[in-house]
Amino acid sequence: MASMKHVHLFRRYLSIVLSLFQSLISCFFDFPILIKIADSFLSLYFLIFCDLRPVTVDLDDGETTVHFWISGHRRISRPNLVMLHGYGGNSKWQFVHQVSDLSKSFNLFIPDLVFFGKSYSKNIDRSIEIQARSIVGGLKKLGCVEGGGGISVYSISYGGFVAYKMAEIWPEMVEKLVIVSSGVGFTQQQKTAELKKHGGDCSKILVPKTPMDLRLLIKISMNTGLTFVDWVPDFVLSQFIAVMYEKNRQELLELAKNLLEREEEPELPVISQKTLIVWGDKDKVFPLEHAYRLQRHLQSSRLEIIKETGHAVNIEAPTTLNNLITSFVLSV
């Protein structure tokens, strides 16, 4: 009898342990714990190794909150550099390969664009201009443009549209501009042609919903590197999607739709700022010929082409890109 009792107790405890283990495994796969942990480590990296600190700014419109990473110890001797990201995650994930080096030469201001990361707005406007006004409003709140000093803006992809609008509206504020892999000035006809290459609905690619969508986004953006993405388990990619896209999915889709479907101005305004244009020669999102077209449009610009690099220059060639940015912004 005693032995039977022990067997029943063992089975009961084993059942409890197995239930707990099953719950733990379920939590591990269903809750985006891996990406949350990775995101926390990125925050620590920004704080400890890059001397950056997080700041959240409420704008005067009473509707918009913009989250920044800014230099913890700003120095008068260093220029102010604003870094504007594209689609594909928040600012930490996109600039992780660059911030350490750039923080040694510049006072950095790195916002999450509205509806990315921790930035949000109740405003129903999804235009590029509202993004630009939100970033400038945040910079003014942070004292970035006080004392008559200007700023330089480094931007990639979607961020390039925002940076160009900033340079157009506030020429007295933006002194120099770096545009990387951005379709600024794309005509409606050119957008339609590029949409057809990638299956028509690029908004679904920009805002992935499934692991297959995310793999496609990475493959379109990259020429080399990240080939291991085919080996990454679906549950990890699903966790990344949950953390980066689910909270503001509808707003991100509306931003993409506004960008892709809006009619451009008959002629792209010519900005006066000195501009550095950087492109990967294997860019499959915005082909290289657009880089030459943009250079011809801007008389005060120069073009640098990085070989064997795709759209995501910030990930595939961060050291080369950092050197180009630093030498351009610091040059007199």
TrEMBL record:
Q: Which GO terms describe its molecular function?
A: hydrolase activity
- AB hydrolase-1 domain location is 79-318
Q: What keywords sit in the KW lines?
A: Hydrolase
InterPro entries hit by this protein: AB_hydrolase_1 (IPR000073), Meta-cleavage_hydrolase (IPR052370)
Sorted alphabetically, which Pfam families does this protein's record hold?
Abhydrolase_1
Q: Any keyword Aminoacyl-tRNA synthetase?
A: no
Entry keyword annotation includes Plastid: no
Q: What is this protein called?
A: Alpha/Beta hydrolase fold
What species does this protein belong to? Arabidopsis thaliana x Arabidopsis arenosa
Indicate the secretion signal residues. none
